[in-house]
Inverse folding.
């Protein structure tokens, strides 16, 4: 059993420390790719394995914003799927993986059950919630984790349309990515390695907001350069970066930012 609040405490402690670590988030999209099923978020529609439909979010009604769009096809993208699988099975001290929550479901086909079965290890010390920084923990991310980042040397990987001017911390290096970065920006892994190696980068924290590419960056960089911290932050900084995709696809952000001074309770993830 894992407690949603306690798991955030653990992550907060790691970020507060100088101890190197990596935290990689495997959400529903990543699980679809791990299953080697088709995944598309496109202009007004989505494909997730055998499920097809229209964008269910009300704003905008006709499309997924550019930074949210992605496409994975098992027939053509097997090399990416292999890299994602490798990142899931990789084990090393302080290398943590977040997986989708159980939230009361005992469905053997659920993403949570699939990940546990795939992991195949009864030692879940290095597993956590993929949503550990969002939902009801998001207010703590804003008010407790972001101030810590003000004291850190931050490297950011995020969409090329990101505006860094409103971030509450300084970024010493920004690596921009395109839409559908899982296909268009795989070369970024080597670019980051070259930059780290050439500049002897140590004691930095790398923040990744790069869809499933974040998982591969966490894995590849921590495997070779374990003198830094690597954190997959998902969409959590979208409002600060002045991106618009979160308005259409991230309910937890809409709920929080509707009343940030007194945010209402949100979903508490479950792991029994």
């Amino acid at each position: 059993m894992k407690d949603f609040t306690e798991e955030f405490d653990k992550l907060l402690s790691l970020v507060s420390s100088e101890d190197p670590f990596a935290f990689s988030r495997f959400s529903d999209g990543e699980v679809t790719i791990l299953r080697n099923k088709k995944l598309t978020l496109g202009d007004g529609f989505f494909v997730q394995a055998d499920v097809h439909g229209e964008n269910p979010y009300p704003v905008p009604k006709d499309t997924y914003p550019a930074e949210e769009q992605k496409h994975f096809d098992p027939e053509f993208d097997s090399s990416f799927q292999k890299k994602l699988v490798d990142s899931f099975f990789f084990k090393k001290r302080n290398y943590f993986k977040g997986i989708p929550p159980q939230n009361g479901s005992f469905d053997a086909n659920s993403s949570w059950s699939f990940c546990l079965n795939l992991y195949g290890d009864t030692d879940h010390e290095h597993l956590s919630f993929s949503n550990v920084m969002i939902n009801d923990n998001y207010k703590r991310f804003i008010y407790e984790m972001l101030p810590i980042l003000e004291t850190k040397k931050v490297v950011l990987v995020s969409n090329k349309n990101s505006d860094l001017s409103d971030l509450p911390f300084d970024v010493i290096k920004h690596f921009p990515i395109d839409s559908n970065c899982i296909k268009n920006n795989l070369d970024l892994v080597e670019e980051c390695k070259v930059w780290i190696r050439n500049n002897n980068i140590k004691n930095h924290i790398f923040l990744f907001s790069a869809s499933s590419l974040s998982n591969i960056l966490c894995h590849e960089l921590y495997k070779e350069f374990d003198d830094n911290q690597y954190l997959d932050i998902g969409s959590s900084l979208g409002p600060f970066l002045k991106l618009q995709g979160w308005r259409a696809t991230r309910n937890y952000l809409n709920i929080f930012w509707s009343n940030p001074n007194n945010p209402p309770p949100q979903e508490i993830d479950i792991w029994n």
